Amino acid sequence: MTRRIPFDAVADRPADVTVSEPTDIARGFMPYERYSVVLPDSEGRETRQRRDLLRAGRVVAVLTVDLDQDRIVLIRQFRLSGHIATGRGDMVEIVAGRVDRGESPRDAAIRECREEIGVAPSRIVELFSVLSTPGLTEEYVTFFLGTVDSSKVVARGGLDGEGEDTLPFVVSVDDALAALDRGSVANALLVNALQWLALHRAGLRDYITAA
């Protein structure tokens, strides 16, 4: 018989830890910092560790859906990491970007939609948040569901001043989920969003009308 685990046991919780002030390793597009960490081991003794962290901050990701047409808006964008890791750097993604200082995640999500696909959502609702790669960065991504008119999506998006070049395109929800099932896409934010969509497809209008 499988022993049932209490619900609250499957949850992140505060750690009994002492963390030093950071030391700069490098400063590029994002700061790269080093920390000293003191943790108790299973015997209660102190263990000292060194941890390096890429400081990426808050990010938003938006699953943009045309409910009337049963379609979603995706973008193509070159990613050096994809090129190096898999040889497929022309990656399929959803709208995403960093939250500016003083900006709310919701406002950032709307702004990123305007910048990357040329149209703002008519309705938008927050879904969930994740740490994208907690072994490397404290990047914290908040996902949104946004409704758009896919006929108004532009042919090319992105901000010239930031070196962005995004190519929006529209696909049916069926085709997007089939690509997920085939393993045709590797961008983690897109995969997270499509998995959520697969679970909640039947109730999309309820999510939007409840917002």
Order of helices and strands: EEEEEEHEEHEEEHHH
Total of helices: 5
CATH superfamily of the largest domain: Nucleoside Triphosphate Pyrophosphohydrolase
Question: Could you give a short account of the major beta sheet?
Answer: 7 strands, mixed
**How many individual domains?**
2
At the first level of CATH, the class of the largest domain is Alpha Beta
Which structural class best describes the helix and strand composition? alpha+beta
Q: Supply the CATH architecture of the largest domain.
A: Alpha-Beta Complex
Q: How many strands? A: 11
Provide the CATH topology of the largest domain.
Answer: Nucleoside Triphosphate Pyrophosphohydrolase
Task: Give the end-to-end Cα distance, rounded to a whole number of Å.
Answer: 42 Å
* Proportion of residues in extended strands: 35-45%
Radius of gyration: 20 Å
Overall 3D geometry? globular
Describe what this molecule looks like in 3D.
The protein has 211 residues and is α+β, with helices and mostly antiparallel strands. The chain folds into 2 domains: 7-54, no CATH class; 58-210, Nucleoside Triphosphate Pyrophosphohydrolase. It contains 5 helices and 11 strands; from the N terminus they run E-E-E-E-E-E-H-E-E-H-E-E-E-H-H-H. The protein has helices spanning 80-86, 105-117, 173-182, 188-200, 204-210, and strands at 18-19, 23-27, 31-40, 46-54, 58-66, 71-78, 90-93, 95-98, 123-131, 140-147, 167-172. The strands form 2 sheets. Strands 5, 6, 7, 8, 9, 10 and 11 form a 7-stranded mixed beta sheet that branches. Strands 1, 2, 3 and 4 form a 4-stranded antiparallel beta sheet that branches. Strand 2 and strand 3 form a beta hairpin. The chain is globular, with a radius of gyration of 20 Å. It starts with 17 loop residues before the first strand and ends with a helix. The mean pLDDT is 92.
